[in-house]
Amino acid sequence: MDPEQTSNASQITGSNIDNLYGVIDRDNVHGLNLTVPEDAKEIIKPWDERESTEKFADSNVDDQLIIHVPFAQNVRIKSVLLKLGRGDTTPRRLRVYTNHANIVDFSEVDDVQPSLNISLLEGETGVTEYPLRIAAFSSINSLSLFFSDSVGEESTRIYYIGFKGETGILRKEGSNKLEIPAANAADASLTDRLQEKGTAEQPTAK
Questions:
Q1: Phi-psi region of 149 (alpha: psi -120 to 50; beta: other; left: phi over 0)
Q2: Fewer CB under 10 Å: which end of the chain, C or N?
Q3: How many angstroms separate the most distant Cα atoms in the chain?
Q4: Which residue from 45, 65, 22 is spatially nearest to 127, judged by alpha carbons?
Q5: What tens digit of pLDDT does each residue of 49-91 get?
Q6: Phi-psi region of 153 (alpha: psi -120 to 50; beta: other; left: phi over 0)
């Protein structure tokens, strides 16, 4: 399947119940072509700071920058949340690379197939949610996000990067099947609870 897609983004509202901030290995977040390298982790913010413009990351010599985000455990990612620079500093393209032990370098981006290629929205002032294809992001331990093609073609600014999804993904030994236990009953959807109940009531074949 062609990973390139037209954005189906939307302004986000609601709670942070499925926000993945708590499982991001923030100390090891880093970037390439940033004016201040340490700013890579500054744009990984808690949910209640997502609209803040106090901290941001700017690209350095041109409008391309890469942010590498490792997770403390495997996660299933449903969407990426972005608050981007305004005007000329708004990037218009995002390529997402999954499960690379190290950051995807600029020398690799044209040779490595991204898991997703997103056309970003222009003119948005708040945090915008970009849904992902869950099948391609069902067991993720790291992401490299390559922003490019800013409106002004000189500099890119990012205020916030966040993710929504599910944690607690475990792999059974000898099986590729994934288990995703809910953090608690309130976090599980009705469908999940019905499936769990149905599974518990089925006899086990000997």
A1: left
A2: C
A3: 66
A4: 45
A5: 999 999 999 999 999 999 999 999 999 999 999 999 999 999 9
A6: left
